[in-house]
Design brief:
Elements lengths: L1 E9 L4 E7 L2 E6 L8 E4 L3 E5 L1 E6 L15 H13 L4 H17 L2 E8 L2 H11 L2 E8 L5 H18 L7 E7 L7 H14 L2 E6 L3 H11 L3 H7 L7 E5 L5 H10 L2 E4 L1 H6 L8 H7 L3 E3 L12 H16 L7 H8 L1 H7 L14 E5 L11 H8 L5 E6 L2 E5 L2 E2 L4 H14 L4
Parallel strand pairs: 1-4, 1-5, 6-7, 7-8, 8-9, 9-10, 10-11, 11-12, 12-13
Antiparallel strand pairs: 1-2, 2-3, 5-14, 14-15, 15-16, 16-17
The structure holds zinc ion.
The site of zinc ion (ZN) has 6 residues, from loops.
């Protein structure tokens, strides 16, 4: 199938036509005349690569609002974990579909997910037309029997789903965090990722408590601990990385580990401080952006992440130049693609056709001096009009074409009424 986009404005300010053939950007030129099954008039619209959310738990949308205004420890153990016990695979599918709707509507075309009941998540990705890297979130808390069963579930998921949905789904190995996984599980995870040539997705140094506990237990800081177990590599995506020393930043850079910066979730859970993004950039770490799950954000908007992520750095450093609009947009697009190892994240011939259009005539998008500035500091989800993923139209003129959004909304509300914690 071919899609022809006419008269779109690029972030550079240039106007061009874009021809999509199969799932790739086939041609970019000032004027293209070609036969195409779908033609989109994009005059007055800004064309961007779709956003790539490098850390989330889409099934958590079912828990939206369940543990607001709590620190991470109480939020996780008193609210989230008890509620998670009541979630079944059908709930997970509905919740992930709801998240897909929210993500597409806010310009995200690809996401990196770890959670449980992942078959439900994979079904939602397949149905929605989105692109995703999915991993079964493993936790053993030092229990050997649990470790074996977690690894078996994680590997089975990879065997069944890696490369599925026409290649839109890739799988990862996802040990939850250094404080919920034993050293043996972390080592085995690294070996499993190597064996199946997948990414390894993990939470890292999210809170100060995690760092102090790790120092007490192992006499090492979390980054050094993971390095000693062989977990850090160019295939590793570490989410959060808030409480790092400069030396740890250097270790991440040395191993080529990608960082998913989650400013909104970190601020909501009061992680304190701010991830040392300027030091990461200086050391050459690939910085990307993630929303984290909706139970700690409480939205999937990458617009909010770009803006708040830039503002948090400026505010905490007393430096208005710490992370500018251009950098924030690159975190959300090209750097995300690099982290997940997908041929997307920029608008170039030969790249995967994961594209969004924004209404530039909206009052909050005018006047235009810098496209990047308007996208990062002024835009919101409501400005996204169209989304194309893997060459297929997933949203056209604000209408999602691939699945029944209303049905997902009703199913999630019904499940939410059942899933309560006191
Ligand atoms: Zn998370």
């Amino acid at each position: 199938m071919a899609v022809l986009i006419k008269g779109a404005t690029f972030a550079s300010g240039k106007k061009c036509d874009v021809l999509i053939e199969s799932n790739k950007i086939a041609k970019i030129a000032p004027s293209i005349t070609a036969r195409a099954e779908e033609k989109i008039d994009a005059h007055g619209k800004l064309l961007l690569p779709g956003f790539i959310n490098t850390h989330t738990h889409t099934g958590m949308s079912i828990l939206r609002g369940i543990g607001d205004d709590l620190q991470l420890h109480d939020w996780l153990w008193k609210k989230v974990r008890p509620a998670e016990q009541k979630i079944c695979e059908l709930d997970m599918h509905a919740a992930s579909l709801l998240s897909c709707a929210e993500m597409v509507r806010s310009g995200t075309t690809c996401f990196n997910d770890m959670y449980f009941h992942m078959k439900g998540v994979a079904a939602a990705v397949k149905e929605s037309g989105m692109r995703a890297t999915l991993g079964y979130g493993m936790v053993d808390l030092g229990d050997e029997k649990k470790r074996k069963s977690e690894l078996a579930i994680g590997e089975q998921f990879i065997k069944e789903f890696d490369g599925s949905a026409n290649g839109r789904i890739k799988c990862s190995v996802a040990p939850h965090a250094p404080y919920t996984c034993s050293a043996e599980l972390l080592r085995a995870s690294a070996a499993l990722a190597k064996k199946h040539k997948t990414r390894l997705h993990i939470h890292l140094s999210e809170t100060r408590k995690e760092v102090f506990d790790m120092l007490k237990q192992t006499k090492m800081r979390p980054v050094d601990y993971l390095a000693s177990l062989g977990v850090l590599s160019p295939n590793t995506i570490a989410a959060h990385c808030v409480w790092l020393t400069k030396q740890e930043v250097g270790t991440l850079a040395k191993h080529g580990t990608h960082v998913s910066y989650n400013p909104v979730s970190n601020m909501k859970l009061a992680s304190g401080g701010a991830a040392p993004i300027p030091e990461m950039l200086e050391a050459g770490v690939n910085v990307t952006l993630g929303t984290d799950g909706v139970a700690s954000n409480n939205s999937h908007s990458m617009f909010e992440c770009m803006k708040i992520g830039a503002l948090l750095q400026k505010q905490s450093r007393w430096d208005a130049q710490a992370v500018n609009a251009k950098q924030a947009l690159q975190f959300a697009t090209l750097n995300g693609a690099r982290a997940l190892g997908i041929n997307a994240g920029e608008i170039k011939e030969g790249k995967l056709a994961d594209i969004i259009l924004l209404d530039m005539r909206a009052p909050n998008m005018q006047p235009v001096r810098s496209m990047e500035s308007n996208v990062v500091y002024s835009a919101h989800a409501g400005n996204v009009t169209d989304a194309i993923i893997d060459g297929k139209l997933v949203m056209r003129n604000h209408k999602i074409l691939t699945f029944d959004e209303e049905k997902a909304i009703d199913a999630v509300q019904k499940a939410a009424d059942r899933i309560t914690v006191t």
